[in-house]
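F.,

This is the one I mentioned.
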């Protein structure tokens, strides 16, 4: 299939709807995605430590809750456009 204007129009509806790659870039989304990815990596490490017996189930759940609350707060700050938001605080 060629990417003609007619194809784009069929794919994205009316001409007034630009393709997704033409939307404005939002750095907040990239920061949010990076924070979420880091959270997932940290949860994986905590679960590994629990499985090895280095953390109890209670300790690991408490640490995951702490990380989740921190991620939630950072996401809220990002959504508000807070100047205090720092993407590397997780």
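My design for it:
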């Amino acid at each position: 299939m060629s990417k003609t204007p007619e194809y784009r129009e069929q794919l994205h509806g009316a001409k007034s709807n630009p393709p997704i790659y033409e939307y404005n870039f939002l750095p907040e989304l990239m920061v949010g995605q990076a924070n979420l990815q880091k959270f997932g990596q940290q949860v994986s490490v905590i679960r590994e430590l629990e499985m090895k017996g280095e953390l109890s189930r209670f300790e690991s759940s408490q640490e995951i809750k702490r990380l989740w609350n921190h991620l939630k707060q950072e996401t809220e700050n990002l959504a508000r456009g807070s100047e205090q938001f720092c993407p590397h605080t997780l």
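The helical segments are 5-12, 27-52, 57-80.

Talk soon.
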